Amino acid sequence: MARDAVGSPPAFAALDDVPALRDAVARLLPEAHRALAEREADRAEVLHRRTAADDRRALAAEVARTHGVGIGDVRGAVLVVPVAGSWWRVAAPGAVVCSASAYVGDAAFATEVVRAAFESGLRA
């Protein structure tokens, strides 16, 4: 699966074409796990809302309708890394890496990122 390729430490093979990003993701992964575990309650609630199953299902259904495919064909993964700024990148078909600050704080950004993961997976 594409998400396994990008989300499998320590190599993050899907990011080989951007060594600086690959190295940053690999270096920040342990810190990301700790930070997520320690995140204060209100930010954790916001992150949970961004990734709530109902929200993802509705967006997946919309992507399926738009592309004329079955809902089961719509799959994607988002790797959120704890960096500042508003950026994201399709790392592999169906897999997107993005900044945590924008993903958590901006509903439109989060929707755009998840949609990109779903749609890039369809083109694989």
Could you please describe the fold and organization of this structure?
The chain is of the alpha+beta class. The chain has 2 domains: 13-44; 52-122, no CATH class. It is 59% helix and 12% strand. The protein contains 6 helices and 3 strands, in the order H-H-H-H-E-E-E-H-H. The protein has a 3-stranded mixed beta sheet with strand order 1-3-2. A hairpin with a 2-residue loop joins strand 2 and strand 3. Helix 4 (53-67) packs across helix 6. It starts with a helix and ends with a helix.
Sum up the structure in keywords:
single chain, 124 residues, alpha+beta, 3 strands
Short description:
By secondary structure, this protein is of the alpha+beta class.
Number of strands: 3
State the major sheet. Answer: 3 strands, mixed
Mean pLDDT across residues: 79
Order of strands, main sheet, comes to 1-3-2
Which geometry do the CA atoms define?
globular
Q: Assembly state here?
A: single chain
Which regions are unreliable across 5 or more consecutive residues at pLDDT < 50?
Answer: none
Specify the structural class.
Answer: alpha+beta
Proportion of beta-strand residues: 5-15%
Name the helix and strand elements from N-terminus to C-terminus, one letter apiece.
HHHHEEEHH
Task: Round the Cα radius of gyration to an integer and report it.
Answer: 14 Å
Question: What's the number of structural domains?
Answer: 2
Note the gap between the termini. Answer: 11 Å
Q: Helical percent range?
A: 55-70%
User: How many helices?
Assistant: 6
